[in-house]
């Protein structure tokens, strides 16, 4: 493998919503040394069945969607 043709990797810290820190090598011009996630696999409703109840069933957009497509979803 040729030397000097690959960009340098620098470590960046990814901070999950529960405070867990993962260090990954990246090729980037980012000035930040870390990224704080707003939502991750531990807190996203699609991946965590306990968090699914956080979806609002009374949302007007959700009600419009349900009525448009004649959907009656009970959540079970």
Q: What is the correct CATH architecture of the domain at 1-44?
A: Irregular
CATH T-level fold name of the domain at 1-44: Rhinovirus 14, subunit 4
**Major beta sheet, strand line-up:** 2-1-3
Q: Which residue ranges are poorly predicted, with pLDDT under 50 across at least 5 consecutive positions?
A: none
Cα-atom radius of gyration: 21 Å
Tertiary shape: elongated
Sketch the major β-sheet: 3 strands, mixed
User: DSSP helix count?
Assistant: 1
Helix content class = 10-25%
Strand tally: 3
Summarize the helices and strands and which ones pair or pack:
Layout: E1 10-15, E2 21-26, E3 34-36, H1 60-69
Parallel strand pairs: 1-3
Antiparallel strand pairs: 1-2
Protein name: 50S ribosomal protein L31
Family: Belongs to the bacterial ribosomal protein bL31 family.
GO cellular component, one term: ribosome
Summarize the structure in words.
This is 50S ribosomal protein L31. Keywords: Mitochondrion, Ribonucleoprotein, Ribosomal protein. Belongs to the bacterial ribosomal protein bL31 family. InterPro entries: Ribosomal_bL28/bL31-like_sf, Ribosomal_bL31, Ribosomal_bL31_sf. The chain has 76 residues and is an alpha+beta fold. It has a domain at 1-44: Rhinovirus 14, subunit 4 (Irregular). The protein is built from 1 helix and 3 strands. It has a 3-stranded mixed β-sheet with strand order 2-1-3, with no helix packed on it. It is elongated. It starts with 9 loop residues before the first strand and ends in a 7-residue tail after the last helix. The model has no long low-confidence stretch (mean pLDDT 80).
């Amino acid at each position: 493998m040729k030397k000097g043709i690959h960009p340098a990797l620098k470590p960046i810290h990814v901070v999950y919503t529960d405070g867990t820190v993962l260090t990954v090598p990246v090729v980037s011009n980012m000035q930040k040394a870390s990224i704080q996630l707003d939502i991750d696999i531990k807190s996203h409703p699609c991946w965590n069945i306990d968090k699914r109840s956080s979806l609002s069933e009374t949302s007007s957009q959700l009600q419009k969607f349900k009525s448009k497509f004649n959907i009656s979803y009970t959540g079970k």
